[in-house]
Amino acid sequence: MAELSGKYLVGVYDDDDTVLHAVPRLRKAGVKIQEVYSPFPIHGMDDALGHPRTRIGIAAFMFGVTGCCVALTLMIWTMGIDWPMIVGGKDSISLPNYIPITFELTVLFTAFGMVTTFFISNGLSPAAHKHERFDVRATDNKFVMAINLGRNSMSEDEISRALRDSGAEEVNIKQF
Amino acid sequence: MHVTSPVREPLIQGGKTYADVTEDICRHVEGKPTKEWKIAFGISLLVLAYGTCCLAWTWWEGLGVWGLNKTVGWAWDITNFVWWVGIGHAGTLISAILLLFRQKWRTSINRAAEAMTIFAVICAASFILMHMGRPWMAYWALPLPNAFGSLWVNFNSPLVWDVFAISTYFSVSLVFWYIGLIPDLATIRDRATSKVSRFMYGTFAMGWDGSAKTWSRYEYISLILAGLSTPLVLSVHTIVSMDFATSVIPGWHTTIFPPYFVAGAIFSGFAMVQNLMLITRVVYKLEDYITLEHIETMNKVITLTGSVVGVAYITEFFIAWYSGVEYESYAFINRATGPYWWAYWAMMTCNVISPQLFWSRKLRRSITFTFFISVIVNIGMWFERFVIIVTSLHRDYIPSSWAMFSPTRYDIGDYIFSFGLFFTLFLLFSKYLPVVNMAEVKAVIRSTSANLPKKIAGVAKVRQREAAAPLFNKDIE
Lengths: 176, 477
Hints:
The complex is a heterodimer. In chain A, 47% of the residues lie in helices and 12% in strands. By secondary structure, chain A is an alpha+beta fold. The longest helix of chain A has 28 residues, at 95-122. By secondary structure, chain B is mainly α. Chain B has helices at 18-30, 35-61, 76-100, 110-132, 158-191, 195-205, 212-245, 257-283, 292-322, 326-337, 341-353, 361-364, 367-393, 409-432, 438-448, 461-465. Chains A and B meet through strand 2, helix 2, helix 3 and helix 4 of A and helix 1, helix 5, helix 6, helix 7 and helix 15 of B.
């Protein structure tokens, strides 16, 4: 999570269904929601918030292709070109025997590349633990909606009322 | 929008709220180590210390301290290696394959099962290092440039495939496990009262905040990791089986090995999960999370994979006769009636007969019986590998070189080492990390809980009772 700045209204909900229904209602009313924080994934939340679909799969595929190429290049070059070896009377480049390692390295590169991309795109790093959060209960049992007042044309009172109407049990102000 | 199917029993019992889940699982992480834990940890350390001495002597003196001879060149080392790798497979099956199949019951046990996978693979890898005799030369198995030796490794060899398979399996499992841990570590970080634990859990939680964007990426990569781990786990034991199957030793040279080994691996792995979880659920009072339903489901998997293994044994025997190959037939007759008949029949009884008892609903829902059968299955699966390795080797083509294998105290001591290592690691895990995946359990609680409280939200029950004082970092019991 990146460093935050500005003044925020923080709506605290106590139920995942409530917050999921609140999001489209608030957006319809003209409130620009920055993000919703929850202790577990709420299915349909990213669609409701209008977040674009993650492209991490494309990255994963590219890493996989890289792993596959690295493995094949390594084996064909070492076994066939750098030091040709004939084992059991077979060709020194025998692709069927290279399949297991090609598979393993493809998986290895995909997994590590994808997870590294995940860490970078979410700003997750061991040094990030000092970053402030809107409400620490968002990792326990509360569902927290953050609204950046600077990015909204509606007044603080209006948004606050809209939040309460949509089922928020608390509305707090957080200044960074 | 959430519907509870009336046919199925709820996965999580006791009408838990979200806060209850946090409270129940974090309790043992935040409390001081209990007396039972300290005793168990002490015993594990002692066992590990004894094993380390045996291992140190094995490496100092050389592999001559083992009971190997020129006929039986692989015995307990590779038996233990295959046994531990096999045990590891259940964790990946639960966390990856069951995720792809959308089996929600996995959420209560996947964390501990994956931890078991990682520790079991560490134990397995220790036997690979042991059987090299000169562990400081282990890097020879890696494809390093010629300056390190005269040649590249032989990429046609299943033993080299194994190096790649095991190390990929270990590192991908570790990453998968860690990704699943991050949200829970964040929960502990946000509850922590002491500076040290806030810093430690905070560092490993890496600033996790649970935003919708993060969760959607998290779910996406979990799915891909599961998709990668599924063929990976199947490939690992397939390649392990190829260590044997691509050789020309009668009894090893069998095309049935890959599926047979994979089924056996899952079979023994689930038995180990049962052993660990049956103890954990009682010690940490997790009966509402790991219910009889979970135990019964795992017993069904044990019966299924046990039956696959049984069919494989019989098929192997039949094919040995049907092939008309004299040596192959002899290898199998020798297994069943030769000097190692007791190992063969121990394997047959433990692996083929015992899981069939779970056809009785009463037995498969009995905790004591499940624990007993799980131990039996693990013994049986150890004997399976012993039978495959030692009885295939001990009578080779020339009767003058026929020999028997008897373990020395170092064979046994090195096996004990792996138990010490495994239980030390598992006990550390079960004390300092949440044994149940809180985030995933919270996500399934609504759709699967029968006595669903009107509001899942609210304060934890424990908290209501002692609302005045915060309970963090206090031994609640």
